[in-house]
Amino acid sequence: MNEQKTYTFHVHAMHCPGCVALTESELSEHPLVSSAQASLTSRTVTVKGDFGQRPPQEVAAELSKALSEHSLSIEPEENRVAWGEFARAVPFALGFAALFVLLQKLGIVDLVQTGTVTYGTAFLVGVVASLSTCMAVVGGLLLSLSATFAKEGDTVRPQVFFHAARIIAFFVLGGVVGALGSMFQLGALGTFILGSAVALVMLVLGVNLLDVFPWAKRFQPSVPKFVSRRVHRVASISHTLTPALIGAATFFLPCGFTQSMQLYTLSTGSFLSGGLTMLAFALGTFPVLALVSFSSLSIARGVRSGVFFKSAGLIVIMFALFTLMNSLVAMGWIPPVFGF
Questions:
Q1: Which domain holds residue 214?
Q2: Which of 80, 175, 267, 322 could bridge across to 271 with cysteines, CB 3.0–4.6 Å?
């Protein structure tokens, strides 16, 4: 007779809503697990299943083998802030900021002067997104998808279908979001509120990437769990069209950068502008995500992952501040930043 037991384990390296979805999805596929419920706030997962008489330590070790990006333990992850990593992260972030200002001067990413987010800016936001939360959310999904089709000897076609469908879907669905925005007359105040909301979302993302304030993770936005769970579960189905469907569905995955760009797209009030904005964002994420899918690269597990994430966090905070200043400039409350 099977005896279902419930265990609560601490999840190491959990830092975003995508980690929650990925952890639950991968554990649910384990033959001994009947249910898995993860929490970003406590960085734990409650697992129910038939593990016989094995002690919790062995169960945690067994289940950790099923996880591609995380590990389980009966002990909480020690929350030590590696302040020394900022010594390398800050110069890198400042260098990126200098490059951004240079591109601003050249008019390539005219974020502040025009009161809008240009396609060049959307592309750069996509690049940053692919190096942070999108790496955890979509990267883990790609690894799962690759493993599923690799078992059948099909390694290239699924990746091509995934990325092509993702880029097309971001254009089409971004256009739909933009068109929906045309039904609402936001006005100057509404535009300011929406822009401030985008800045706030990005600010929370940046702070969480710094991994300094664990309590801030509870404020990170996410889509309903049932949506992300279904997307991850479909990835394990080796149907020819599965990669394309999953690629298109990433538009709805809990990546805060995607959600912040979707908020902005809503304000465009245009199918073409909204579609091109999300297309530029998707193209920005493509190089790194393609590298992940074709080489199984996982920067998050590298020895310098702390410096990497802190650099990304500082850059994201910079984008949040630029976006907020953009809203203030559009309202006429402050002069154009840096004289642009």
A1: 83-339
A2: 175
